[in-house]
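Progress narrative, work stream C.
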Amino acid sequence: MFGPLDLDIDEGGVSVLAAPAGAARTALMMALCGRMRLTGGSLTVLGYEDQPRKVFAHSAIACMNELDEVPPSVTVRDLVTEQKRWDSPWYRLVPRVDERGVADMCEEVFGDVELPHLRAFIDDLPELQQMLLRIAVANTRRPPLLVVGRLDRIADDAERAVLLERLIALGETQSVITADVNPIPPGAAVRTLVDLHDLLGPGDIGVMTETG
């Protein structure tokens, strides 16, 4: 899927993997957060060397359709309620959320971006809101590592810059890794930009083995 590859990413802030979208980039990002095992080489994340289960437990991943794609018929209320139920003890009854419940889960991630309407279908939301919502739902535990798939899913340059700024805000308390084939906006407070254009191709052939 990818390699040979020698990669060093500092802890904290936002790190952007600059590479074309495709199976190789997806596999690398899944490996970095413990969702895929390497078949060769070594990987140390958060101090855990070749321990994807440990990394899995201390990380979150969002906006990766292979793992968190949302059916178009799901509403904002459905998605947020389901996540609150997952986060609660099994014996606790969690009612369907209201606008306050959506705000509680999403405000930190959305910042100044307008929150989605409670009854809106996910598929009807603008791309920026869709991605921020998926990040908010994935990041409820606020783990040390957050991996966010493909900034380049957003076609509009201005909206993509807003998304990056929101990730930078999250990067004040977490290590955030994302990927983009496009140039990073000048002046963006990204900690690390890793140019992988010559190392990761856009090919889409391969077998992904998720950590069991």
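Work stream C, second folded protein:
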Amino acid sequence: MTKEELLQTTDLFLLDLDGTVYLDETPIGEMRETLARLRACGKKLVYLTNNSSKTPDEYEKKLGRIGLWGEGDAVYTSAMAAIEYLSEHHAGARVHVLATDAVRAQFARAGIALDDETPEVCVLAYDVTLDFAKMKRFNEFLAGGAVYIATHPDDVCPTAGVPMPDVGSFLALFERSSGRTPSVICGKPYTVMGACVARAFGVPSGRTCMVGDRMHTDIRFGNANGMKSLLVLSGETTRENMKNFPDQPDLVLESLNEIFK
């Protein structure tokens, strides 16, 4: 697929964040101008991130601060997908959410009954304030048989420096300590998030393009949900290691900034 064909057949661009539009606090290249031009072409931009350490409002503020937010844009996180999943499949259940205070409050505002004493369901999100006491309590709930859900599977979170441990690393830790793995993972590449996005924005999958830097989450997500997929080499993946993955993108660019070049 060419760049021109992708632009002509896409109404909704789902944009990964870390490694795709920015690194830490820095937009990748001339990303501000690229996103502005996509909006001018009538494209809907949704920042679709597995990173569940922040709320949508926090992401909107960050994107605004670094000049990437525009009128009509939206944010959708793996935590939002987890909230939708809980509301549909575990309505009224007592839920322990291992997350930052802001994200826990997001779950509570959505009507999830938080319970840190006798939960029926445990949700593992990206808690960047994780400490041993939190890990011990979560492990005890898993050992007690609580339903186990995770927001996303990413092993690391890319930064401008050393990549940081992410939920996938925590999943490995809890598997070793409790013998448990999640019954459901809500974020990319899984179809829980795909169904949530389709309901939220109402754009057919064939007119949607997933843009991201990770083969095993972003590109697999696009392919699994019937979307077009655009791999950018501005983050984790290189042209060499992309060959090692069964899911291949429809288009590869050095960065999203090449879409109009």
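The chain is about 35% helix and 20% strand. No further action is required on this item.
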